Amino acid sequence: MLRHVAAGIDGSPESLAAAHWAARDALRRGAALRLVHAWEWHPRPAASVPMGMSERDWAGRNLVRASSGVRAAHPGLSIIEEPVQGSPVTALLAAAERAELLVVGSRGLSGVAGFLVGSVSQRVVARSTRPVVLVRAGESSADEHFSAPGGVSPDEIPDTPYRDIVLGLDTSRPCDELIEFAFESARLRGASLRVLHAFTALPAHVAADRLAPQPGPGLLAEQEHAVVATLRPWCEKFPGVAVTETVVEGRAADELVRAASGAALAVVGRRTRESRLGTHIGSVAHAVLHHAECPVAVVPHA
Question: How many distinct structural domains can be found in the chain?
């Protein structure tokens, strides 16, 4: 099967931003780009479909528009256009299964609220068995790089360094798929990897009752040692990736959102488990998706 990165298209500004982000990632990987547009037949087409045009024709037009824009920006990229009749969630999940990763757009409610709750993107994130990257409208290649001198666009200076990749790490449940994705993302860009582990210490009287480590410098040193030990084999596997470890006491979601400010990409995990309410994203990933300022990769793991 042809190696490729998939992107979901629906004609919205955020899906076009996702297509261009996916194109840049495909080029970094030496892979093709597959643009997927799902459409469903309705007796009365949605308001977004122009008068006198069918959903199928509208999907085709959106695909051509997205594909043309990406080809103009990246002439050497191999692009596959795939219109699919059916549910967008089902179509995107199927596309993700065949791809190295899936990239989708997500609507921002505001600068604080972040990604739209209940969107197709979030349902795909909650159920996909492959990594999914969410991208906001307006995201461009310039946002992935540090500022170039003199206001010159990073596109005009190929060696402009990438911003850091940020990985949220839980040392109590380290996951190979998550860590490898973050290291590989940094390697492909020649970027530094910032690994953040946040922990919450139990109050002293509670820790004593549960025979848990007492809060203080000793507990911090123990957490730092666990991070270094977890990352050691990956640093050996990816010797060219510069890694910075940060261990802080606090809420993981808050600390990750703060660390993601100014990053090229934030990488978080999602445990692939079922509950009585079905699949879910997890509280930390959910918070980062809603509030991080940069694209967010959600990597499923056992």
Answer: 2
